Amino acid sequence: MKFIAGGVAKSEVADTLRPLLREGDTVQVGTDMDAAALLRTGAADYYLGTCHTGAGASLGVLVGLLGSDRTHTFGRRVPSAADVQAAVDAGKVAFGFALDQVQDVVPLLWAALDAKRQG
């Protein structure tokens, strides 16, 4: 899987995700505009974006360019594993969350996305 980490806490997202990755998986730090282009062309699989609220700047451009059917915000709360699984099962590829939730949300997202890959 190829991930893009963006937003205010993009470095922290990438640093949290890297130890979880399997061989061949990648994470790069980028902008929301980079992410939109890479997701649209298939050069990236997922975007994890952060901002202060988890609902605004973390996904604004991606909602506009990819549509709300491919994006999901968890906002200011730490989602349950079931909430994360529901978003993944719905086909979301860009996820937004609050910058103070990175340590909680990234492992949940990783677990759901990795399980999806394994089928």
From TrEMBL:
Pfam family, one: DUF2620
Domain of life assignment: Bacteria
Matching InterPro entries: DUF2620 (IPR021238)
Protein name (database record): DUF2620 domain-containing protein
Species of provenance: Streptomonospora nanhaiensis
